[in-house]
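Exercise 7.
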Amino acid sequence: MADKEKKVAEVDSKPKKTAKKGRLKEAWRGFKSEVKKVVWPSWKQVLKNTGVVLVVVLICAVIIAALDYAFGTGIAALASIFTK
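Solution. The predicted structure, written as C-alpha cells, is:
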C-alpha cells in the first residue's frame, strides 16, 4: 500500500514542461495583444509632458533648497544663543 502511494507521489511531483511552455506562450500572446491596444502619445505631447515634469521638479527643488537654508539658519541662530 505504501509503495503505491509513494509511486503516485513521485509521478505527481514531476514538473510538466509542456504545461509550462503552454502558459508561457499564452502569456506572450496576451502581452502582444495588450501592447497593440496601447495608444502612444505624439512626439509633441511627449515634449509638452517632459517640460511640465521639468518645471515641477525645478519648483520642488527651489522650495526644498529655501526650506533647507531657512531651517539651517534658524538652527545656527538657536545654537549661537545657547553657546554664548
